[in-house]
Amino acid sequence: MQENATIPVSVVFVLGFTMMLGPFAIDTYLPAFPLIAESLGVTIHQVSLSISIYMLGFAVGQLSGGAFSDRYGRRRVLVTGLWVFALAAFYLSRVDSLQELLAGRFVQSVGGGWIGVSIPAIVRDQVQGVQAAKLFSMIGMVSIVAPAIAPAIGAAILEAGSWGLIFVYLGAYALAMLPLLMATVFRGPRKPRPADGIGFVERYISVVKTPSALPYILWQTASFGGLIMFVTYASFIYQDHFQQSRGMFTLLFACNIFAMFACVLLNRLLLNRLSPRPIMYFATRVQVVAAALVLLAAVLEWPVFGFLPAMMLYAGTLGAISPNIQACYLEDFPRSAASAAAVMGTAQFGLGGAASALSNLLPEALLSVVICIAACAVASFLCMHWSRRRESARQD
Question: Which positions, given as ranges, span the membrane (predicted)?
Fold first, then answer.
């Protein structure tokens, strides 16, 4: 692992395409929510629980997969995760009840967690510092395409057949990644990881006890939490509240992802002149402003094209916050990168999933959703200041 090491472009793209499975698993079936609800005899609100279940299961998968990856190697955990994800997807294509849908999504998300926790660890094994932030941005530029095109793919599949075909597509995608990973990321003989004698629980305890870790973990969790809340209710916001068609929903949703892509690209350019920290400090402040605008749009009942720019600004800030937080956070964990990534991922998706699940208890209204989004932005801002104080204390 080196500060100025370079990684082949083919590896970057394959890692990015693998990361795309996460947003694909969440966003591809969003246009099908009304059809799924009708098919299973439930409401769209109940179908949205499948996103919350996926978030919680993803957290469980990351928590278990992180320690396994540090102990047994990245390849074994990543490959197993892809198989679990694919088989669960094929099962989901044939469910006929809400209970089966939720159970299948949980199993699929555990496999997704094993996949998701492996990618940051592979990056940390290769580079650190500014180079790590750049690599996370490059992977982000590839994987962030997924949320933009996923609803369109889902809508196209619905034109060709039933909603079950969306999950068949997800399973086939996961299996297609296996030969690509073997030809690029895991090319050459397998290198066994030396045993370090550290137990699973001890790995996680050591991560949490690291002074700089908790502020970064909660900062990332709060920052990402607002986006999870938006994605959970995106179909309701655009198709029900603003009365937009399925095709228009796809375009409106893609606008938010385009904003994230633009900020990821801008972040990578800024990293040529600045270190990750000042960039993510500024982006977090912008996120708070954007959350205030989203809240104002709901209170004043702005039309959809008044609400959209504010939501785009909020979503876009994630492109400059997340990769920099990951790079700075993982600097302190050269031997337990997967376990550290697992702790952050578990908090990020576990707390985010729990929050989106609990939000089902709130009135089904736009104002309820944006209040939750604004609360996440405020929490992110407070965690940023906590992290800065910890960083100043360490330098002193």
Answer: 7-26, 46-65, 77-94, 106-123, 135-157, 163-186, 213-236, 248-267, 365-384
